[in-house]
Amino acid sequence: MIIYLDLLFALNALADYVLLYVAGRIAGARVRPLRLAVAAVWGGLYACAQPFGLAPWAYTPLGVLGAAAATLAIAYAPVPLRQALRLGLAFLGTAVALAGTVFALMFAHAATSAAGLPWWLMGIPLLAAVLTARHYGSRALRRWRAVPEAMVPVAVGVGAQEVSVMALVDTGNRLRDPLGQSPVVVIEARALRALLPPSLLASASQRAPAWEEVAGALDGTPWAARLRLIPYRALGTEGGLLLGFRPDRAVVAGQLVDPTIGLSATPLDPSGRYQALCPAALLQTAERAS
């Protein structure tokens, strides 16, 4: 049997790119075309090594799963564990669906050829299957992605000190700093106790912060220029003011960004999975910068 390596590589790389893209969209991960291309090249090389009998253990069931995990890691790492699991399930599920589609096309082609029917007739059941899958798949996808599980690491630095927390990507967070209109990342005040002056930490930990006392206590210090009062509105309240500050640096999902930090007096997640709310707009800014 003659094997054309260039064709084998191109087909597998193209299939891997499509599978990775679809899996990322389903799992709600950030899709970076360059990283997907690198992962697809790796997948094409992995497929080309099999005909030569190189590392036969790599093509056992465990080896195939390991290769799939490596492909996903090249395309999307680092991501939180739950999102990594969703990516893995989406990738494997999409791969199975693609393989089933190819098998169905081959079966339909053989059936129409044997019956002497024109080949294009197999497009009718295929179109019906695609429309059905799109209808029910989109409903399931909306339910799956409606669960607020997209989280990113956030690091905030002031001077030589830096604190890292996990943040929920919050599409409802549209807070803006009145000075400069920078997006606001809301973080539990107690999570930043290593950065904050005692007076600011004590006031920000209260439901009704005494911001005038804080401003007076920090007057004449470098922190005076950092302080911010951020107006907000929430369900069940007419609005209020959130104490905040401007950090020296902030990194979201590995990308340098320029937010204002708002301080929350209460825990943002009772289960402790995250300690911050990151606006989706800031994440999009970081993605464009990368």
Task: Give me some keywords for this one.
9 strands, 8 helices, alpha+beta, nine-stranded mixed sheet, Cathepsin D, subunit A, domain 1, elongated, 48% helix
Describe this structure in words.
The chain has 2 domains: 5-145, no CATH class; 151-289, Beta Barrel (Cathepsin D, subunit A, domain 1). The radius of gyration is 26 Å and the shape is elongated. Strands 4-5-8-3-9-2-1-6-7 form a 9-stranded mixed beta sheet, covered by helices on one side. Helix 2 (33-49) runs antiparallel to helix 3 and helix 3 packs across helix 4. With 290 residues, the protein is an alpha+beta fold. Helix content is 48%, strand content 18%.
Short recap of the structure:
This protein is α+β, with helices and mostly antiparallel strands and 290 residues long. The protein has eight helices and nine strands.
